[in-house]
Automatic annotation (TrEMBL):
Polar residues bias locations: 32-41
Protein name, as recorded: Uncharacterized protein
Disordered, as annotated region: 22-45
Keyword presence, Cell inner membrane: no
Cleavable signal peptide: 1-24
Listed PANTHER family: ANKYRIN REPEAT AND PROTEIN KINASE DOMAIN-CONTAINING PROTEIN, ANKYRIN REPEAT-CONTAINING PROTEIN-RELATED
UniProt KW keywords: ANK repeat, Repeat, Signal
Family matches, as PROSITE patterns: ANK_REP_REGION, ANK_REPEAT
UniProt xrefs under InterPro entries: Ankyrin_rpt, Ankyrin_rpt-contain_sf
Pfam families: Ank, Ank_2
Repeat region (ANK), residues: 77-109, 110-142, 143-175, 271-299, 372-404
Origin organism lineage: Eukaryota, Sar, Stramenopiles, Oomycota, Saprolegniomycetes
Length: 463
């Protein structure tokens, strides 16, 4: 790569405001294979990221100053002392090792080279020494990271500039699709982001980039991007901020939506449901202040209450009860498009304390799903939730009651969000709780049912 030098990037010290982003064209690298999960975890600190294996074999972790040690280390293979010299900033030791034939491109089992170690620590002198010794700028660690990627991870912007001036490939991409811009955004390096977007052959911002910044709550960077390209604010971007509990970020994103009001309403409503599902109560309250509708549902008919119950977020349920006392019971009494009431979703998750709360709010623990005749007991048994089964038994649910029932009910179709009349005259062949336990291999539940199914019920059993 020495003959291929990109134009040096001057890192921008001033705040990035009103930069000219690219709204069209094709990204420099494919992003289709990249998901936000690949950018979720921050890297370990420099002391562990690049050199956790350096001291294997009893090599001391002290600065190297012993000439005899330098001259007696075998230099034709992997040379841990050069890595250690790079990690401790021992320039003279590294110089002596290189003079004695040390391989500057040697790597450990993780693929880490001395240049990567020096880059992670921001040691310009060591990096320049290794570059002068023809260290390979394109060498990759096991995960596909180059020294340039490593420098960006650790916020060593001076090293990024140095490596780019030396000819490092600004557009190198790891096998998982992560490139320099992904890293810069994930770590919140506004100066580096600005430089990459202002380069002669610039990167192009996408929705995924804003999603990363939103997830990590890099509010200034998010504001920069939203100001320049508000069209990048989408459902997935807002949800990334919501699920991470980023109040300020969510405000910035919603304020930046300039598209029609009905689209903004749809985004806010969707974010409300996501906040309920992820238990982000503070964000949920913010979204209600921003105009989210408490009665909103997703494309399968789940409301805030459905999602809160499904994921056992009692605080969300209590919030709805506090702010919308007249809406809670109707929401709890409304099935989704699969015919499931909130009590069925609580049973599916095995949330017996939620079932207890729902019963206290007047919900029946004997409610049947409108598509298969399952009661909460059937659902809990099928999913193997022993504690929920014992709770429902204690509340008088009948182990003998079959799933089969004759009901006629109209439900929205699940097909592509269309609505049609679906009449269910008869459900699946009747199965008792014992049948379901045996069918799904839940032996502990089957034994419990066998021991207790002949006991008289403590509560009147609903038909």
């Amino acid at each position: 790569m020495r003959g291929h030098v990109h134009r040096p990037l001057a890192l921008v010290a001033a705040a990035l405001v009103g930069f000219q982003g690219n709204s069209g064209g094709t990204p420099r690298r494919p992003f289709g294979s990249t998901s936000i999960s690949q950018c979720q975890n921050k890297p370990p600190p420099p002391t562990t990221l690049q050199h956790r294996r350096l001291f294997a074999g009893g090599v001391p972790d002290t600065p190297l100053t012993n000439d005899r040690l330098v001259k007696t280390i075998p230099l034709n293979q992997y040379t841990p002392t050069l890595h250690i010299a790079a990690s401790s900033g021992s320039v003279q030791v590294a110089t002596d090792l290189i003079a004695n034939g040390a391989n500057v491109n040697a790597s450990d089992v993780a693929g880490t080279t001395p240049l990567m170690v020096a880059a992670s620590l921001g040691d310009q002198t060591m990096c320049q020494l290794l570059l002068d010794a023809n260290a390979d700028l394109d060498a990759t660690a096991v995960d596909g990271s180059t020294a340039l990627h490593v420098a960006a991870y650790h916020g060593q912007l001076d090293i990024v500039t140095l490596l780019l001036q030396a000819g490092a490939d600004m557009y190198a991409t790891r096998p998982d699709g992560i490139d320099l811009l992904h890293i810069a955004i994930r770590e919140g390096h506004r100066q580096l982001v600005a430089a990459l977007l202002l380069a002669k052959d610039p990167y192009i911002l996408t929705e995924f980039h804003l999603e990363i910044a939103s997830k990590w709550g890099h509010d200034q960077l998010v504001a920069d991007v939203v100001s320049a390209q508000p069209h990048l604010v989408t459902f997935s971007v807002v949800n990334a901020a919501v699920e991470s509990g980023r109040l300020a970020t969510t405000r910035i994103l919603l304020a930046g939506i300039t598209r029609p009001s009905d689209l903004r309403q749809a985004i806010v409503n969707g974010a409300l449901l996501h906040a309920a599902a992820t238990g982000q109560l503070a964000v949920l309250q913010l979204l209600l202040e921003e105009g989210a509708e408490i009665t909103a549902t997703d494309d399968i008919g789940n409301s805030v209450v459905h999602w809160a119950v499904r994921h056992n977020h009692l605080d969300v349920l209590l919030c709805v009860l506090h702010h919308f006392p007249d809406q809670l019971i109707p929401l709890l009494s409304t099935p989704n498009h699969a015919g499931e009431f909130p009590v069925h979703l609580a049973a599916r998750g095995g949330h017996w304390t939620m079932l207890q709360r729902l019963e206290g709010l007047g919900m029946s623990l004997h409610e049947r799903c409108l598509t298969n005749g399952f009661t909460p007991l059937h659902v809990a048994v099928m999913h193997g939730h022993f504690k929920a089964v014992t709770f429902l038994h204690a509340r008088g649910c009948n182990f003998h009651q079959p799933t089969e029932v004759v009901v006629t009910h109209n439900l929205p179709s699940l097909s592509r969000g269309l609505t049609c009349v679906c009449t269910f005259d008869q459900y699946l062949t009747g199965k008792s709780a014992s049948d379901l336990a045996a069918q799904h291999g839940h032996d502990e539940i089957a034994q419990f049912i066998a021991q207790h199914q002949r006991e008289p019920s403590q509560h009147a059993n609903a038909a």
